[in-house]
């Protein structure tokens, strides 16, 4: 008697652990899967076609992505999340945030066509907050959403931010100490339950290295929040240095005034960007970050 062939199924990748991923089925079951081909790695946020096997599922295909984001170290650049609608960058009044790290994340989002929201936490630390808020004063003019937050002292600030996340898949990024865990626990009361489900799918912790995890915010599963570590290692090496200024809105709008179409904004005469810098329309710190990143992206790629 012949067996019925296993049917191809659609699923969503909700957690990644090296080559293994946890796939959520249409019925809500979570299954540990691995790719059939070594180069067919799936990312959190991917829609995949998979088939059941004896002990775990096999991913047969990754559906086309609308975007993907990268992280990098000294050795390589690798993708870590896909199909993102919004990048929420959580920073705090204390510890003091790095504007270079913030800029890297914004450039990565802009280059991938992803909206970005900057959230400054700990508004109850009045003096530190006012100083940090002043550092961010130019960002709304660049087209970025900017929000104040204090979950304990101003619950309405949290509610307003969550409204902006409705019906979106949001990637949450932030350095340690800014309140990311508190944010997740308030946004997703069921986060612990969802984490336990992933642990069960992973066969009680056999695969422990977690890069990113997707949580459902609502029961209807229309709003998702992806938690991902590694703010410092945000990857932008996929960007051509000649196009870097296009992903920095304050530079890009002034680059249109440059005399030469291929101006690097570093030394050419008639540069609209450096002219705006001299007139105070671009902050010296933002231009310094541009110079540093341009030099970094111009180095020979080792990966």
What do these coordinates show?
The chain is of the alpha/beta class and 303 residues long. The chain folds into three domains: 9-62, OB fold (Dihydrolipoamide Acetyltransferase, E2P); 68-227, P-loop containing nucleotide triphosphate hydrolases (Rossmann fold, 3-Layer(aba) Sandwich); 241-298, Orthogonal Bundle (Ribonucleotide Reductase Protein R1, domain 1). It is built from eight helices and 13 strands. It has helices spanning 99-111, 126-135, 155-163, 180-187, 191-201, 249-255, 272-278, 284-298; strands spanning 9-17, 20-25, 30-35, 47-51, 57-62, 68-72, 77-82, 86-92, 115-121, 145-149, 169-173, 213-216, 224-227. A six-stranded mixed beta sheet has the order 10-9-8-11-13-12, with helices on both faces. Strands 1-2-3-5-4 form a five-stranded mixed β-barrel. It has a two-stranded antiparallel sheet with strand order 6-7. Strand 12 and strand 13 (224-227) form a beta hairpin. Helix 1 packs across helix 8 (284-298) and helix 6 packs across helix 7 (272-278). The chain starts with 8 loop residues before the first strand and ends in a 5-residue tail after the last helix. The mean pLDDT is 88.
